[in-house]
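**Backbone shape codes:**
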Amino acid sequence: DNLRLGAGVESYGKRSDGGVVATLQTGEQVHGDVLIGADGIWSNVRAAMTETPARGEGSGVTYSGYTVFAGELEYGGGDPECGYKVYIGPQQYFVITDIGRGRYQWYAFLARPADSEASEEKPDGSSPYLQNLFEGWSPEIHDILRATQEHEIEQRDLYDRPPSVLKPWNKGRVALLGDAIHAMMPNLGQGGCQALEDALVISEQLTSLSSRGEIEGALQGYRNRRLTRSAAVQGLSRFASDIIIRGFDTPAKLGFSGGKLVAENLNYAGVVTRLLQPILPVFFAVQFAFLYDGWENKFSLKQLQIGLSIFAFGSLFLIAFAATAGSEVAFAGAFAESILGAEALEGLSVWATEQSAAIQEVLNSLGGGPPGL
């Protein structure tokens, strides 16, 4: 009697006794003490709470600049020694992962404008289309693409939201959960994980109450406990997308061969990629420890310090790659605009572009020496 299928929440209102009445898309009204809006990135509950549209301009939802092809299949050609592989190249990358019991998933991330599914023709299907895009890449990519049937592939554009640092998570006896409040890029596989953490914290907050009068305070406590971690994971997820697809290049090589100085890929992105190579393992170790190792969803200065440290370290990468990742895209990826403000962000973007242009001039002069240099 209490389960409704295919009937999302259209809007909600407050009852005279402080409770909530939710109006479903079927027109039915449902009454309760608490409403948890777990209705995804296009949340109607969020729209009603903030008096903003659920979609489009003003909703806070933005297109990431990426589309993804995803496949899942029975596959016997995987590498038994490695359950997760990532192949990275300019403007695109490919992921193969073993999900157990002989089944594999793969993802092809491409930098594309919105609605590219309709604008880019695929007369022979998605698999041949991707095989052509990844021509010259690892044979493992082509093997799993050839093994995938067309009905096992889907394409979707990726949208996310900036961290809701200054936006409400809760109002009265209504709170938001999961993608409704912190939609994020899928690169770290954290969208569903963060929603589960939300649910656990909400459960802890509400089951400890002794009266209905404490509900609003409990939901505010939920927001306080989850804000720092979810915002950091959102930023890391977008950071991974922007830098992997738009920033990294073949590392620059500079050395002697046959008595001559040889320079390969001596451009800004190549040099920065080379310089950051020894640092990346450290950053990823810190990142995965933050994601999986002993985080407590309790607001404290220590937890805030950890989140801000990761944000600051990630920002250094974004500044370094601003020329190749696109300064606006990169900083928006880390959601700096929501924290620094538009004017400060614009100033940083201009500065980063100027610095990278100056460095590229020096590199060009080095590459323009006499023959054989």
